[in-house]
Design goal:
GO molecular function (chains A, B): L-glutamate N-acetyltransferase activity; L-glutamate N-acetyltransferase activity, acting on acetyl-L-ornithine as donor
Pathway (chains A, B): Amino-acid biosynthesis; L-arginine biosynthesis; L-ornithine and N-acetyl-L-glutamate from L-glutamate and N(2)-acetyl-L-ornithine (cyclic): step 1/1; Amino-acid biosynthesis; L-arginine biosynthesis; N(2)-acetyl-L-ornithine from L-glutamate: step 1/4
CATH architecture of the largest domain in chain A: 4-Layer Sandwich
Order of helices and strands of chain A: EEEHEHEHHEEEHEHEHHHEEEEEH
Organism (chains A, B): Peterkaempfera bronchialis
Largest interface: A-B, 67 and 67 residues
Structural class of chain A: alpha+beta
Protein name (chains A, B): Arginine biosynthesis bifunctional protein ArgJ
Strand content of chain A: 15-25%
Shape of chain A: globular
Number of helices of chain A: 10
Oligomer: homodimer
Catalytic activity (chains A, B): N(2)-acetyl-L-ornithine + L-glutamate = N-acetyl-L-glutamate + L-ornithine; L-glutamate + acetyl-CoA = N-acetyl-L-glutamate + CoA + H(+)
Radius of gyration of chain A: 21 Å
CATH topology of the largest domain in chain A: L-amino peptidase D-ALA esterase/amidase
Number of domains of chain A: 2
Strand order of the largest sheet of chain A: 13-12-11-14-10-15
């Protein structure tokens, strides 16, 4: 059910004709209230798509009544006219639903640098408005797919209230955030400040710690909308944990569907002096192309883990580094440890653990292997 | 001629049996003087191979009488015993040539985390000492190849003195430095301090600005040895330029032979506020896997250039960015510029130019595309 798992929300996904493939490409999520409280986090890329610039303005008011999302075009690097296109999209949704356009967020995903086909997109908004339903969450999740092979939804219910959501993203997965659009909804009664706190805490350790290919998007948007329709004010910790759990579920689904990947790789850094050190080391290991190739070849090449760690500024002594691959400590004290032939890497999920022996902080980053399929998919994306 | 282009040097390359392939794997370069002045730069990776730790000590004395180089094993992450192996290698060369072991530099390249087969390597040093000749530069360059498809040498002669050199490196090419071993020689009369200044200036804009795959090695070493055999004290600027020219030539050869690459890509950043900004932007663009895939597909996907630039801390306004690919300004003012169909990317060399419009500083970084062949080669390297 995704975004319609929580009460007070309707959604739809339709085919507006933006994508040449003729598959669904426009989604609409509407909050029927009584509350319209919302929070959002956006890409930290300084080159931001028009819908990001627009939605950041909308979120400053702390209220979102509807979200329009399209696949088939990112509307990034499109200048003032691209921004006008986003504005017109919000106005069209506001007109169709009798809302305030200043409370309509817009998200786009697809190729950078091309204008959206507004003659198709605007009628699509009307079509989606007419198709809204309280079980439209799946259709909406399907309509935001780009190179995703499956649509992604998740939900948890706690003490009479629910947090649900949908996500898309398969390439350009890197923190800050990934090339992802995520809409989370809840019927718990939480104000904008409470939503913002829960959302930032959740994204920091979930969406911000998946790093499929080190490439940061211009369009990343994660929204959290509250309808308050459950009539229940949740315990803040329980609410934060529910938002984190749904975010972690969706983040794991994103890594599992990354473009061309054959391995989902969890990198656990332990024994770090600080959490920042642990994240820096984990991310550096996650981005090492040579290691990612070795993982693809099911080669427990721990030398590439050490050479990656060696490029960071984290506190560690090279002669104290321990590295395990799928539980086998193939490197102990910076040199050869247990027999690498004991490592079984045949499963899709691989766990790399590195103990820095410099403290008690830790962090986990998820990544993928690097494959010929990734190269093929991304060498032919725009042409 | 490479390292024997300058007078006062002899070299050899032999097959010691370190490599399973049975190809040459041990090189020796000897400086017959009268000067033994030398300088060196080494990997900035904090995980350093035993030969790097050894040679750094040797270079502190400013004198190098011989360099032993082996392919077939990096002797990195091998602990105290690995360091003893390097020491024994220097001692063997000193014994064979009646030199001081403290003036014998050692370089190794190959797989990380495995001890060298000393029972083969030490007799190889004796064999190489017996094979030394004043035209052995080619044989030495051949013996240091790993995944290199061709050996790399270069030389320039100016006013009666010569700078020559050899290089190896095909993967793990990233700054600070790449996975490269380079030995430069000169018969000009320059003391250690003068060699050091010229070498650091040269590597800063050549070997440090090739970034094939963003992966930094544990073994990188660039040495510059002077025999003084020309009897000529060169003009310092002319000498620095000769060292830079030979370094640039070898660096370009390394990029041209990078593992699996089908494109050599020059990234020129102009209009930067500072040279550091220009280098940061160039390097970030060079490391963007999605862009590297697009280059492989001959797709002038400038959106991926902008999304990479947007992740840097350099000074720029997103609405002022101009990007050209092979001379066609496909992005102007942060949005679509000239027709991308005008871009011809069929040649192996591709030039990406980005003007930040934030100042007058500039920098160039070389990289390669990302290919299925790179994945194949590096997913099967150690197993």
């Amino acid at each position: 059910m995704g975004v319609t798992a929580a009460r007070g929300f309707r959604a739809a996904g339709v085919t507006a004709g933006i994508k040449a493939s003729g598959t669904p490409d426009l989604a609409l999520v509407v909050n029927d209230g009584p509350s319209l409280a919302a929070a959002g986090v956006f890409t930290s890329n300084r080159v931001k798509a028009a819908p990001v610039l627009w939605s950041q303005q909308v979120l400053k008011g702390g209220l979102v009544s509807a979200v329009v999302l399209n696949s088939g075009g990112a509307n990034a690097c499109t200048g003032p006219l691209g921004f006008q296109d986003t504005h017109a999209t919000a106005e069209k949704a506001a007109e169709a639903l009798t809302l305030n356009a200043g409370e309509v967020a817009v998200c786009s995903t697809g190729l950078i640098g091309e204008r959206l086909p507004m003659a198709k997109l605007l009628p699509g908004v009307e079509q989606a408005a007419a198709a809204l339903s309280a079980d439209g969450g799946e259709a909406a999740a399907i309509a935001i797919k780009t190179t995703d092979t499956v649509h992604k939804t998740a939900a948890v219910t706690v003490d009479g209230w629910t947090v649900g959501g949908m996500a898309k993203g398969a390439g350009m997965l890197a923190p800050g955030l990934a090339t992802m659009l995520v809409v989370l909804t809840t019927d718990a009664q939480v104000d904008s400040a409470g939503l913002d706190a829960a959302l930032r805490a959740a994204t920091r350790t979930t969406f911000d710690r998946i790093d499929s290919d080190g490439c940061m998007s211009t369009n990343d948007t994660v929204l959290l909308l509250s309808s308050g329709a459950s009539g229940t004010v949740p315990d803040p910790d329980a609410f934060a944990e529910a938002v984190r759990a749904v975010s972690a579920d969706l983040a794991r689904q994103l890594i599992g569907d990354a473009e061309g990947a054959s391995k989902d790789v969890r990198i656990d850094i332990t024994g770090a002096a600080t959490e920042d050190d642990a994240v820096e080391v984990a991310r550096t290991v996650a981005r090492n192309n040579l290691l990612k190739c070795a993982l693809h070849g099911e080669d427990p090449n721990w030398g590439r883990v050490l050479s990656a760690i060696g490029t960071t500024a984290a506190a560690f002594d090279p002669d104290q580094l321990d590295v395990a691959i799928n539980g086998v400590w193939v490197c102990k004290g910076g040199q050869t440890g247990d027999d690498r032939s004991l490592v079984d890497m045949s499963a899709r999920e691989v766990v790399i653990t590195a103990d820095l022996h410099a403290g008690t902080a830790e962090a986990t980053v998820w990544t993928n292997d690097l494959t010929a399929d990734y190269v093929h998919e991304n060498s032919a994306y725009s042409t």
